[in-house]
Amino acid sequence: MPEMISLEEARSLVLSHVEPLPTETVPLLDVVGRVSAYALTSDIDISPFAHSAMDGYALYAADIEQANEQNPVQLKVIAEVAAGDWYDGSVEHGECVRIMTGAPIPEVLDAVVKYEIVEPVEGDGKPGSTVSFSAPAKVGSNIREAGEEAKAGEAIVEAGEVISCAGIGFLAGCGIVEVATYERPRVAIISIGSELVDPTEVPTGGKIRNSNSFALAASVQAAGGIPDILPIVEDSEDALADAVKSACATHDFVITSGGASNGDFDFIKPVVERLGELLMTTVNMRPGKAQTFGIVDGKPVFGLPGNPAAAYVGFEMIIRPALRKMQGYRYFERPRIKARLSRDVKKNDPRRIFLRSTLYKNDEGEYIVAPARNQSSGLFGVIQRSNCMAIMPEGLESRTAGSVVECVLLDVAEELSL
């Protein structure tokens, strides 16, 4: 039987037994938040032409280099260019062109002065008018050059990069409407326990609703996977073995909840050992000491405890990183931040403890972490109201209010480095 290992060893063990899934090509909108499997290149320069960054007047910067409040320079407006139009006529010194945001700059002109600081002298500022400039403009002012953001054939997204919402717009502008990404893992979720009933039922006579399956399915979905809640399995080793075997045939990852300890009706460990290779049974953490992991028919099988907090912490700290690796992500750990405890915390368990907590800033701008008063591993509501987990390191050292502890952020993406 495998011995109790550290959280880092557990995470490393699980990560070493999963690999990125095969790639698939999906429509552009379906790749938001996912990983590009290959480098992507633009088919044109972005922007394909030099254009105005604002509404104003395009001109020769040299024509107004001596302009000031006392001696403004007047130019004649000879044309107007709107976005989508093109002006290829001649422009002489002493002339300018009224131009709109996004409109192409006439090739010979080298600066744009914004509309608000130009005074009409004759006319309304449109073609045929004369306008006055009371300050000089630098060459290139308010002009976005052709190819400023990307050149044709240049890599605009690297392999392994996560595509954001803004990235979708960038790719569309580069002519890319499909992207190769890694398949999302199909994850089977099996709750174990003869006491469980469906959430649609009103529990009676010692029964409880099967809430873990839904929390885990939501966690899988949040991690990018595709959850599949399978039927509840009664406390029977043979029934569980059949369910796990069947799930491994149709899914990329199998998660069970319940039956992970050493009681008379805890069967996930013997089932994994019977069907495949048992690699892990306990992790030096609380909640969630009982964490079963093994390989069955080439598929990872992870047995979480039945207590909600224990299952949630085990998922966040070990399973979520594995699911991310299967989708090609580069970062596997949530960001951490240091904060001062809002109250004393006594420690009577030598394991590393994850306290469900709320992180906030005080009036002085310091990060404060407030551990929930009730840390029972059987509660979902406390996790719902938490945005982090305060970490009490291994050992029996208690902490007093004001002590600095490390916190795992639960609502911040792994890609953010703090």
Automatic annotation (TrEMBL):
SUPFAM superfamilies in the record: MoeA C-terminal domain-like, MoeA N-terminal region -like, Molybdenum cofactor biosynthesis proteins
Pfam families: MoCF_biosynth, MoeA_C, MoeA_N
Catalytic activity as recorded in UniProt: adenylyl-molybdopterin + molybdate = Mo-molybdopterin + AMP + H(+)
Pathway(s): Cofactor biosynthesis; molybdopterin biosynthesis
Keyword Signal: no
Keyword Transmembrane helix: no
The enzyme's E.C. designation: 2.10.1.1
Keywords: Magnesium, Metal-binding, Molybdenum, Molybdenum cofactor biosynthesis, Transferase
Boundaries of every MoaB/Mog domain copy: 188-325
CDD domains xref list: MoeA
Cofactors (names): Mg(2+)
Top-level lineage group: Bacteria
Similarity remark: Belongs to the MoeA family.
Protein's job: Catalyzes the insertion of molybdate into adenylated molybdopterin with the concomitant release of AMP.
Name of the protein in question: Molybdopterin molybdenumtransferase
